[in-house]
Amino acid sequence: MRILLWHVHGTWTTAFVSGGHEYLIPVLPGRPADGRGRPSRPGTFDWPPNATEVEPHALRDAPLDVAIAQRPRDLALIEEWTGRRPGRDLPVVYVEHNTPPAGLAEPPHPAAGVPGITIAHVTHFNRLFWDCGGARTAVIEHGIPDPGYRYTGELPAAAAVINEPLRRGRVTGTDLLAQVRSTLDVDLFGMGSEPLGGRDLPHKVLLDELPRRRVYLHPVRWTSLGLSLVEAMHLGMPVAALAVTEVPAAVPPAAGVTATSPEALAAGCLALLRDPDAARLAGHAARSHALRRYGLGRFLADWDRLLAAVAAP
Questions:
Q1: Sign of the alpha-carbon dihedral angle for 80, 85, 86, 91
Q2: CB neighbour list of residue 153: distance below 8 Å, 6 or more residues apart
Q3: Cα gap 26→110, rounded to integer Å
Q4: Please, what are the domains in the chain?
Q5: What stretches in the chain show pLDDT beneath 50?
Q6: Of 126, 164, 229, 240, which is most buried by a Cβ count within 10 Å?
Q7: Beta strand 239-242 pairing with 256-259
Q8: What is the pLDDT of residues 37-47, one digit of tens each?
Q9: pTM of the predicted model, to two decimals?
Q10: d(Cα 258, Cα 239) in Å, to the nearest integer?
Protein backbone atom coordinates (compact mmCIF):
# COMPACT_ATOMS: atom_id res chain seq x y z
CA MET A 1 0.00 0.00 0.00
CA ARG A 2 0.97 3.64 -0.45
CA ILE A 3 0.17 5.45 2.78
CA LEU A 4 0.20 9.19 3.41
CA LEU A 5 0.95 10.26 6.96
CA TRP A 6 2.50 13.15 8.84
CA HIS A 7 5.50 12.93 11.15
CA VAL A 8 3.73 13.89 14.39
CA HIS A 9 4.94 11.50 17.10
CA GLY A 10 8.44 10.22 16.38
CA THR A 11 8.34 7.00 18.40
CA TRP A 12 4.88 5.96 17.18
CA THR A 13 5.74 6.77 13.56
CA THR A 14 9.00 4.84 13.81
CA ALA A 15 6.99 1.75 14.71
CA PHE A 16 4.33 2.40 12.06
CA VAL A 17 6.77 2.84 9.15
CA SER A 18 8.47 -0.43 10.11
CA GLY A 19 5.76 -2.28 8.17
CA GLY A 20 6.09 -3.43 4.60
CA HIS A 21 4.31 -0.54 2.89
CA GLU A 22 5.39 2.64 1.13
CA TYR A 23 5.00 5.66 3.39
CA LEU A 24 4.78 9.22 2.05
CA ILE A 25 5.84 11.81 4.62
CA PRO A 26 5.08 15.48 3.74
CA VAL A 27 8.00 17.89 3.98
CA LEU A 28 7.99 21.70 3.83
CA PRO A 29 10.85 24.24 3.91
CA GLY A 30 12.02 24.77 7.46
CA ARG A 31 10.28 21.54 8.53
CA PRO A 32 7.31 23.06 10.40
CA ALA A 33 4.64 20.92 12.10
CA ASP A 34 2.74 20.39 8.82
CA GLY A 35 5.86 19.19 7.01
CA ARG A 36 8.53 17.74 9.28
CA GLY A 37 9.47 15.04 6.83
CA ARG A 38 11.79 12.30 8.04
CA PRO A 39 13.70 12.80 11.31
CA SER A 40 16.45 15.33 10.72
CA ARG A 41 18.03 15.46 14.19
CA PRO A 42 21.07 13.16 14.45
CA GLY A 43 20.66 10.27 16.85
CA THR A 44 16.88 10.33 16.96
CA PHE A 45 14.99 7.66 15.00
CA ASP A 46 15.98 5.22 12.27
CA TRP A 47 13.38 4.99 9.52
CA PRO A 48 13.55 2.54 6.61
CA PRO A 49 14.06 3.78 3.02
CA ASN A 50 10.41 3.02 2.15
CA ALA A 51 9.42 6.05 4.28
CA THR A 52 10.06 8.83 1.78
CA GLU A 53 9.62 12.57 1.90
CA VAL A 54 7.17 14.17 -0.52
CA GLU A 55 6.38 17.80 -1.21
CA PRO A 56 2.67 18.73 -1.02
CA HIS A 57 2.35 19.60 -4.72
CA ALA A 58 3.39 16.04 -5.64
CA LEU A 59 0.48 14.54 -3.70
CA ARG A 60 -2.14 15.83 -6.15
CA ASP A 61 -1.25 13.11 -8.68
CA ALA A 62 0.19 10.53 -6.30
CA PRO A 63 -1.54 7.13 -6.24
CA LEU A 64 -2.61 6.69 -2.60
CA ASP A 65 -4.36 3.78 -0.96
CA VAL A 66 -5.03 5.34 2.44
CA ALA A 67 -4.16 8.40 4.52
CA ILE A 68 -3.42 8.53 8.24
CA ALA A 69 -4.65 11.63 10.08
CA GLN A 70 -3.44 12.39 13.59
CA ARG A 71 -4.61 15.97 14.08
CA PRO A 72 -7.85 17.74 13.08
CA ARG A 73 -5.80 19.87 10.69
CA ASP A 74 -4.65 16.78 8.80
CA LEU A 75 -8.17 16.26 7.45
CA ALA A 76 -8.10 19.68 5.80
CA LEU A 77 -4.57 19.13 4.49
CA ILE A 78 -5.52 15.81 2.94
CA GLU A 79 -8.21 17.49 0.85
CA GLU A 80 -6.12 20.58 0.07
CA TRP A 81 -2.97 18.71 -0.93
CA THR A 82 -4.40 15.61 -2.62
CA GLY A 83 -7.63 17.07 -4.03
CA ARG A 84 -9.54 14.12 -2.54
CA ARG A 85 -12.22 14.24 0.12
CA PRO A 86 -11.19 12.37 3.28
CA GLY A 87 -13.30 9.26 3.84
CA ARG A 88 -15.08 9.59 0.49
CA ASP A 89 -12.50 9.84 -2.27
CA LEU A 90 -9.67 8.51 -0.13
CA PRO A 91 -9.87 6.06 2.81
CA VAL A 92 -8.68 7.70 6.03
CA VAL A 93 -7.84 6.35 9.46
CA TYR A 94 -7.69 8.99 12.20
CA VAL A 95 -5.24 7.86 14.88
CA GLU A 96 -6.24 9.28 18.26
CA HIS A 97 -3.14 9.44 20.43
CA ASN A 98 -4.63 11.49 23.25
CA THR A 99 -7.23 11.38 25.96
CA PRO A 100 -10.11 13.82 25.45
CA PRO A 101 -9.28 17.28 26.82
CA ALA A 102 -12.43 17.58 28.93
CA GLY A 103 -12.77 14.31 30.74
CA LEU A 104 -15.88 12.72 29.32
CA ALA A 105 -15.31 14.22 25.89
CA GLU A 106 -17.20 17.42 25.33
CA PRO A 107 -17.27 18.26 22.44
CA PRO A 108 -17.26 15.06 20.35
CA HIS A 109 -14.17 13.80 18.59
CA PRO A 110 -13.13 16.05 15.67
CA ALA A 111 -13.48 13.16 13.20
CA ALA A 112 -16.79 11.87 14.57
CA GLY A 113 -18.89 13.71 12.00
CA VAL A 114 -16.77 12.95 8.92
CA PRO A 115 -18.38 10.17 6.83
CA GLY A 116 -16.26 7.16 5.99
CA ILE A 117 -13.47 7.75 8.50
CA THR A 118 -12.28 5.12 10.97
CA ILE A 119 -10.97 6.37 14.33
CA ALA A 120 -8.17 4.18 15.68
CA HIS A 121 -7.47 4.70 19.37
CA VAL A 122 -4.13 3.73 20.87
CA THR A 123 -5.71 2.57 24.14
CA HIS A 124 -9.02 1.06 25.21
CA PHE A 125 -9.29 3.88 27.74
CA ASN A 126 -9.24 6.42 24.92
CA ARG A 127 -12.06 4.71 23.05
CA LEU A 128 -14.09 4.47 26.26
CA PHE A 129 -13.80 8.18 27.03
CA TRP A 130 -13.97 9.79 23.59
CA ASP A 131 -17.42 10.50 22.15
CA CYS A 132 -16.98 9.25 18.59
CA GLY A 133 -20.65 9.35 17.69
CA GLY A 134 -21.49 6.82 15.00
CA ALA A 135 -17.97 6.65 13.56
CA ARG A 136 -16.35 3.27 13.14
CA THR A 137 -13.71 2.82 15.83
CA ALA A 138 -10.87 0.42 16.53
CA VAL A 139 -8.18 0.03 19.17
CA ILE A 140 -4.61 -0.69 18.11
CA GLU A 141 -2.41 -0.61 21.16
CA HIS A 142 1.16 0.66 21.02
CA GLY A 143 3.99 -1.47 19.76
CA ILE A 144 7.64 -0.52 19.50
CA PRO A 145 10.86 -1.99 18.13
CA ASP A 146 12.50 -3.83 21.00
CA PRO A 147 15.50 -1.78 22.20
CA GLY A 148 16.75 -4.80 24.14
CA TYR A 149 17.36 -5.33 27.83
CA ARG A 150 19.68 -2.52 28.96
CA TYR A 151 18.91 -2.15 32.66
CA THR A 152 21.80 -1.59 35.06
CA GLY A 153 20.08 0.47 37.77
CA GLU A 154 23.51 1.69 38.77
CA LEU A 155 22.27 5.16 39.71
CA PRO A 156 20.03 5.26 42.84
CA ALA A 157 17.61 7.70 41.24
CA ALA A 158 14.30 7.62 39.41
CA ALA A 159 14.00 8.65 35.76
CA ALA A 160 11.00 10.52 34.36
CA VAL A 161 10.32 11.57 30.77
CA ILE A 162 7.94 14.52 30.41
CA ASN A 163 7.77 16.64 27.28
CA GLU A 164 6.93 20.32 27.85
CA PRO A 165 6.33 19.91 31.60
CA LEU A 166 5.83 23.63 32.26
CA ARG A 167 3.24 24.14 29.53
CA ARG A 168 1.32 20.94 30.29
CA GLY A 169 1.48 21.34 34.06
CA ARG A 170 -1.00 19.24 36.00
CA VAL A 171 -1.84 17.12 32.96
CA THR A 172 1.64 15.57 33.03
CA GLY A 173 1.94 15.69 36.83
CA THR A 174 4.60 18.37 36.89
CA ASP A 175 3.41 19.47 40.33
CA LEU A 176 3.63 15.87 41.57
CA LEU A 177 7.15 15.64 40.23
CA ALA A 178 8.15 18.50 42.52
CA GLN A 179 6.48 16.74 45.45
CA VAL A 180 8.28 13.44 44.78
CA ARG A 181 11.59 15.24 44.34
CA SER A 182 11.37 16.39 47.96
CA THR A 183 11.66 12.73 48.98
CA LEU A 184 14.01 11.16 46.42
CA ASP A 185 16.25 11.95 43.46
CA VAL A 186 14.47 12.19 40.12
CA ASP A 187 16.35 12.80 36.86
CA LEU A 188 14.03 14.48 34.37
CA PHE A 189 14.25 14.11 30.59
CA GLY A 190 12.17 15.46 27.73
CA MET A 191 11.62 18.36 25.36
CA GLY A 192 11.28 21.64 27.21
CA SER A 193 12.32 20.12 30.55
CA GLU A 194 15.50 22.17 30.93
CA PRO A 195 13.95 24.89 33.19
CA LEU A 196 13.18 22.12 35.70
CA GLY A 197 16.70 20.74 35.56
CA GLY A 198 15.89 18.19 32.87
CA ARG A 199 17.70 17.22 29.69
CA ASP A 200 16.46 16.87 26.11
CA LEU A 201 18.49 14.02 24.65
CA PRO A 202 18.44 12.37 21.22
CA HIS A 203 16.29 9.26 21.36
CA LYS A 204 19.17 6.81 20.99
CA VAL A 205 21.05 8.46 23.86
CA LEU A 206 17.92 8.53 26.00
CA LEU A 207 17.50 4.76 25.63
CA ASP A 208 20.97 4.32 27.12
CA GLU A 209 20.53 6.86 29.90
CA LEU A 210 17.14 5.79 31.25
CA PRO A 211 18.09 2.25 32.34
CA ARG A 212 21.08 3.52 34.31
CA ARG A 213 18.47 4.84 36.76
CA ARG A 214 16.95 2.33 39.14
CA VAL A 215 13.24 3.13 38.63
CA TYR A 216 11.08 4.67 35.94
CA LEU A 217 8.68 7.25 37.42
CA HIS A 218 5.45 8.07 35.57
CA PRO A 219 3.58 10.88 37.40
CA VAL A 220 1.25 11.68 34.50
CA ARG A 221 -2.40 12.45 35.39
CA TRP A 222 -4.32 12.71 32.15
CA THR A 223 -2.70 11.65 28.92
CA SER A 224 -2.85 8.53 26.83
CA LEU A 225 -0.37 5.77 27.61
CA GLY A 226 3.08 7.31 27.23
CA LEU A 227 5.40 5.55 24.82
CA SER A 228 8.30 6.43 27.11
CA LEU A 229 6.68 4.21 29.76
CA VAL A 230 6.38 1.36 27.24
CA GLU A 231 10.02 1.88 26.25
CA ALA A 232 11.17 1.87 29.88
CA MET A 233 9.44 -1.47 30.42
CA HIS A 234 11.10 -2.90 27.31
CA LEU A 235 14.45 -1.73 28.67
CA GLY A 236 13.86 -3.78 31.83
CA MET A 237 13.12 -0.90 34.21
CA PRO A 238 10.78 -1.29 37.18
CA VAL A 239 7.91 1.18 37.13
CA ALA A 240 6.33 3.55 39.64
CA ALA A 241 3.26 5.07 37.97
CA LEU A 242 0.04 6.86 38.79
CA ALA A 243 -2.78 4.34 38.43
CA VAL A 244 -4.81 6.44 36.00
CA THR A 245 -6.00 6.21 32.38
CA GLU A 246 -4.50 3.07 30.77
CA VAL A 247 -1.76 2.46 33.36
CA PRO A 248 -3.62 -0.17 35.46
CA ALA A 249 -3.94 -2.34 32.34
CA ALA A 250 -0.44 -1.61 31.05
CA VAL A 251 1.59 -2.13 34.24
CA PRO A 252 1.12 -5.48 36.03
CA PRO A 253 1.61 -5.60 39.83
CA ALA A 254 4.86 -7.53 39.50
CA ALA A 255 6.39 -4.73 37.40
CA GLY A 256 6.61 -2.21 40.25
CA VAL A 257 4.04 0.00 41.93
CA THR A 258 0.94 1.85 40.76
CA ALA A 259 -1.07 4.14 43.01
CA THR A 260 -3.48 7.07 42.94
CA SER A 261 -1.93 8.53 46.09
CA PRO A 262 1.16 10.66 45.39
CA GLU A 263 2.47 9.68 48.83
CA ALA A 264 2.06 5.96 48.07
CA LEU A 265 3.67 6.46 44.68
CA ALA A 266 6.70 8.16 46.23
CA ALA A 267 6.93 5.49 48.96
CA GLY A 268 6.80 2.68 46.42
CA CYS A 269 9.41 4.37 44.28
CA LEU A 270 11.67 4.86 47.30
CA ALA A 271 11.30 1.21 48.30
CA LEU A 272 12.51 0.12 44.85
CA LEU A 273 15.41 2.55 45.01
CA ARG A 274 16.51 1.05 48.33
CA ASP A 275 16.23 -2.57 47.16
CA PRO A 276 18.19 -3.13 43.94
CA ASP A 277 17.38 -6.85 43.85
CA ALA A 278 13.62 -6.23 44.06
CA ALA A 279 13.94 -3.49 41.46
CA ARG A 280 15.73 -5.83 39.06
CA LEU A 281 13.09 -8.55 39.48
CA ALA A 282 10.32 -6.01 38.87
CA GLY A 283 12.14 -4.81 35.78
CA HIS A 284 12.26 -8.32 34.36
CA ALA A 285 8.50 -8.64 34.92
CA ALA A 286 7.95 -5.27 33.24
CA ARG A 287 9.98 -6.29 30.19
CA SER A 288 8.26 -9.66 29.89
CA HIS A 289 4.83 -8.00 29.96
CA ALA A 290 5.86 -5.28 27.49
CA LEU A 291 7.21 -7.81 24.99
CA ARG A 292 3.94 -9.73 25.08
CA ARG A 293 1.54 -6.82 24.97
CA TYR A 294 3.45 -4.06 23.17
CA GLY A 295 5.62 -5.94 20.71
CA LEU A 296 6.21 -4.54 17.22
CA GLY A 297 4.99 -7.68 15.43
CA ARG A 298 1.56 -7.57 17.03
CA PHE A 299 1.28 -3.82 16.37
CA LEU A 300 2.09 -4.14 12.67
CA ALA A 301 -0.20 -7.14 12.22
CA ASP A 302 -3.09 -5.22 13.80
CA TRP A 303 -2.44 -2.30 11.48
CA ASP A 304 -2.24 -4.49 8.40
CA ARG A 305 -5.67 -5.92 9.19
CA LEU A 306 -7.21 -2.49 9.70
CA LEU A 307 -5.58 -0.95 6.63
CA ALA A 308 -6.76 -3.83 4.46
CA ALA A 309 -10.30 -3.40 5.77
CA VAL A 310 -10.53 0.36 5.19
CA ALA A 311 -8.80 0.28 1.79
CA ALA A 312 -10.96 -2.51 0.41
CA PRO A 313 -13.26 -1.27 -2.40
A1: negative
A2: 211, 212, 213, 214, 237, 276, 279, 280, 283
A3: 22
A4: 2-143+296-311 (3.40.50.2000), 155-293 (3.40.50.2000)
A5: none
A6: 240
A7: parallel
A8: 999 877 778 89
A9: 0.93
A10: 8
